[in-house]
Amino acid sequence: MPKYILSISIFFFVALSVLFVHDRVLAQTASSSATTSSQEDIRNKIKDLESKLAEIKGEEKSLSSQIAVMNNQAKLTQLRIEDTKEQIKDLEGSIEVANNKIDKLEGTLDEVTKIILNRVRETYIAGDIKPMQLILSSQNATDFITKEQYLKMMAVHDQELLFETQQAKNDYSNQKQIFEDKEKKMTALKAQLEDYTKELAVEEANKKQLLAQTQGSEANYQRLLSQAKAQLAGFSRFTQSQGGAGLLSGQTTCDDWGCYYNQRDSQWGGQSLNGTQYTLASDGCLVTSMAMVLTHYGHKTLPSDINANPDNFASYYPAYLLYTIRVNGVTAARVGSTIDAALSNGDPLVVGVHAYGGTHFVVLRSGSGGSYMMNDPYVANGNNIPFTDHYSVGSIFEIHKVVIQ
Fold it and tell me: Is 238 within the bounds of a domain?
């Protein structure tokens, strides 16, 4: 075998080896992008704001402190949006690199496959040379020894080339996995960015709502907060005095009037009341009463539907249901009324009662002159039962009919 053939083969092998090593280094680099100084700065700001928020939330409740919480929460969400955008930008570059590497490795593997086939054919031909043929084709002993050494070296080089080819295939497989992983991460980051964007819009709306509800007045804020706390405390006392918030099953019934719901129904009773420490089972009498009245007017509504919309609750006290709510595309408002006039007109009433050391809301559905039938959201199977079997007419402190807007 001529020496120049061996030299070319060795040169090609060395060049190919360097290419494969270089490819593997780039593949590893593409698989993990370094965090930029910009991202580090954003994340440090996020940590600082989280600490600041924890401090502010521990302060005494006031309009200014709640606005400060809202402002800082909005800033925190904005920073999270910026951080997510930076991650997406960084990942887009990494995906492009990974995609380019895949294309390059595909081309390299095609070339290597051709070379391997040629080398296998050459090795097969060389393998057919008998020792006697090698001796006869040699000019002298030195030439024979040189040819024999060349053949052995080429066999070793072929094995190494095959090994590097396998490594290239592994690199290709790894790079494909890197690309797929980054694509999945990109999808998750885009979904997270969308969630943060929606969260920021909600936070800004909550602040606007708070200022509207309190008219920017600290005195109004404290008055409204006191009323809301008193109402929820009254709900809790009533429930505790009546045996607690144990869940029930098989409570829902619907007829020509509408649907009867129980706040302790296992379908929703265990749900947190708008993300607070309260539950629908313990403090959801007003939410459940509103849902029942809406069904009377032909709007299929569950207590959980009302509870699912944070805008239905006061920004200054998130467990306090507002007088005007929106659910399933319907806006409903509680407005003052008189009992007999409303019932005679076919309009059910949501009434508040002082009872058993607490406060409670029920639905009056029919009757007159102090003799009324009600839907009680706490009493088991409290559908269309006499009001005075459980409460006195004199205990009523709040009377509202529901107007669909």
Answer: no
Structural domain that includes position 119: 3-214
In angstroms, rounded to a whole number, what is the distance separating the alpha carbons of residues 114 and 111? 5
Do 252 and 360 share a domain, yes or no?
Answer: yes
In a domain, 221, yes or no: no
Whole-structure pTM over 0.70, yes or no? no
Name the domain boundary from 196, 214, 232: 214
Residues, the chain: 405
Q: Residue ranges of the alpha helices (H) in 128-140?
A: 131-137
Cα–Cα distance measured from residue 274 to residue 105, given in angstroms and rounded to the nearest whole number: 54
Burial 215-251 (b: 16+ CB within 10 A, else e): eeeeeebeebbeebeebbebbbbbbeebeebebbeeb
Q: What is the pLDDT of residues 291-341, one digit of tens each?
A: 999 999 999 999 999 999 988 999 889 999 999 999 999 999 999 999 999
**Location of structure tokens 């009493």:** 379
pLDDT for 56-70, tens place per residue?
766 667 888 888 888
The CA dihedral of 9, 14, 18, 23, to the nearest 10 degrees, is 30
CA atoms of 233 and 209, how far apart (whole Å): 24
Question: Looking at the structure, do residues 262 and 399 belong to the same domain, yes or no?
Answer: yes
- Tell me, what amino acid is at 255? D
CATH code: domain of residue 76: 1.10.287
Structural domain total, the chain: 2
- Distance of CA 207 to CAs 65, 80, 198, 386, Å? 12, 19, 15, 43
DSSP for 249-284, written as a single string:
SS--EE-SS-EE--TTBTTTTTSBSTTSS-BHHHH-
Structure-derived torsion over alpha carbons of residues 96, 97, 98, 102, reported in degrees to the nearest 10: 100
CA dist., res. 272 & res. 270, Å (int): 7
